Amino acid sequence: MDENNELNKDENVEYTAHEMTDEEIKAAADNIGTTPLTSYSYDTERSTTYGAGATVVTPPPVEEKPKKKRPFLKVLGVIGLAACFGIVASGTFFGTSRALDLITAGNETVESKDDSYVKPEKNDNIGTAQNTGVDNLVINKTDVAQVISADNNVVVDVVKKNMSCSVAISVTFTTYQSFFGQRYSYESEGGGSGFIVGSNDTELLIATNNHVVENATKIQVIFCDDETVSATVRSTDPDNDLAIISVPLKDIPDKTAEVITEATLGDSDSAEIGEMVIAIGNALGYGQSVTVGYLSAKDREVTVGGVTQKLLQTDAAINGGNSGGPLFNVRGEVVGINCAKYTDTDVEGMCFAIPISVAQPILKDLMKDIIPEEEQGYLGVSIKTITDEVAAFYGWPKGVYVYSVVEGGSAEKSGIFAGDIITSVNGKTTLTSEKLKSVVNSYKIGETITVTIMRNENGEWSEKNIDVTLMKKPVTD
Questions:
Q1: Mean pLDDT for the chain overall
Q2: Helix (H, G, I), strand (E, B), or coil: what is residue 213?
Q3: Dihedral sign for Cα atoms in the order 426, 430, 433, 439
Q4: 212 versus 40: which is more confidently predicted?
């Protein structure tokens, strides 16, 4: 008996030593709970490369906190587009100059354990190149059983079929700053992801997020065989964070053209919560990698950069550089375009994608043949975007402010006046000058468009729809 335990003895009891039997030892062991294990986190301040500098952290005692409601729209300010779009300065790109922004964290796979499973026929058509342009943007369904094979689990099969339609995107920006009256410029590099959605006689067309390529001075696409080709922005829809970039077919080597394919677009409207989803993208600049999760929710209303969208929610990891990349279902169909993640110390696994059923008609419109400048319609207005600050200060609607109209031009002849605020054209929201110009330029001279405006009449804003027949842009000396 330990001398330190003398105070615990009962003086009326005789204490004797006892050797425990095997049964008593086992019974005592069964009553011992598991010892809390330490957790590990990465100390990035000590790390020179991603994934290094691990430190041990002992978890603090868990305290019960009263539950409080957190409106989902508080995602604004917490949603980090930068978390899905990689960018660094000084001409470096996460330690790699060619691969873009993906660090592989280990690919999760799922296998069938059902003894009654019968091997179906394998479908080799998923991801096959069709190169039929806009007409190929159709919903294409395939029975899930056709994708799964007995010797290949579903994730591996989807990845093998679709790595060829997925691309990494590298972008360069020029940033200007002024110091003591001197203006300096420097380059920064970043990256994102995309996927092939069509082609025409001269271009290969790739879908991505607008925020990946916005204001980029240089864009490069890295295909599945690591071939790098320069690309340009073809058309964008900032309000829906979508863009089409193009690569000239003549610049694609024959060996690359033989292996790349066109993505098959699915139907996100019919997708069910709980379905497995697979993200392919270029996270943290290390080239294409794969993450796996489940469709957590649909129609999540999320506000990012002042734009509110209804997005798919998934717990598949979406990291810096995944923006613009495809989110596949187990049939190998694109059901979403990865765009953002919820970043908060209390949150894990809340990532978001634009539903493909929403994106598909927009992408189809962005892929239309570009009208030559000499054939583009001309509205004839001088305009300026109304910022959030201006709208709040003056109590104006958001849109594009018309501060003058060209005499004898399309707008003036149709009844659009200085002071009107244009909000949409043919039902397409045009809240910025750039978007208004882009939409108007997609129509030819002589076509009639419906311009929606807000007009202040007797101190009250009222909405009006005005039909405008587009004229030719006047030639100026």
A1: 74
A2: helix
A3: negative
A4: 212
Q: How many residues does the chain have?
A: 477
Task: Decide if 211 is catalytic.
Answer: yes
Q: What is the mean pLDDT of residues 180-201?
A: 86
Q: Got the DSSP string for 374-431?
A: GGB-B--EEEEE--HHHHHHHTPPSSEEEEEE-TTSHHHHHT--TT-EEEEETTEE--
Tell me which of 211, 246, 410, 424 is the catalytic residue. 211
Closest CA to 256 of 234, 228, 232: 228
Q: Distances from the Cα of 119 to the Cαs of 49, 157, 469, in angstroms?
A: 44, 14, 60
The owner of tokens 């069938």 is: 112
Rounded distance between C-alpha atoms, residue 38 and residue 103, angstroms = 25
Query: Given 199, 246, 323, 424, which residue is catalytic?
Result: 323
Burial class (CB in 10 A: 0-12, 13-18, 19+), 48: exposed
DSSP 217: S
Question: Which one of 101, 157, 237, 241 is the catalytic residue?
Answer: 241
- Of 132-141, 269-278, 282-291, 341-350, which range is least confident? 132-141
> pLDDT tens across 3-13, in order?
444 444 455 54
By CB neighbour count within 10 A (0-12 exposed, 13-18 middle, 19+ buried), where does 39 fall? Answer: exposed
If 0-12 CB within 10 Å is exposed, 13-18 middle and 19+ buried, where does residue 365 land? middle
Annotated active-site residue 323? The verdict is: yes
Lowest mean per-residue pLDDT among 59-68, 273-282, 374-383, 458-467: 59-68
Contact 260, 275 (CB under 8 A): no
Helix (H) or strand (E) holding 155: helix 154-162
What Rg, from alpha-carbon coordinates, does the chain have? Answer: 29
User: pLDDT tens, 243-290?
Assistant: 999 999 999 999 999 999 999 999 999 999 999 999 999 887 777 889
d(CA 244, CA 207): 5
Using DSSP, state whether 309 is helix, strand or coil. Answer: strand
**Cα 403 → chain centroid:** 36
State pLDDT tens for residues 222-231: 999 999 999 9
Q: Cα separation of 213 and 243, whole Å?
A: 8
Backbone angles phi, psi at 236, to 5 degrees: -140, 160
How does residue 474 score in pLDDT terms, banded at 50, 70 and 90?
confident
Q: Kind and range of the H or E element at 27?
A: helix 22-30
- 25/462: higher pLDDT: 462
Strand, coil or helix: 170: strand
Q: From CA 218, how far away is CA 230, in angstroms rounded?
A: 8
Whether pTM > 0.85 for this model: the answer is no
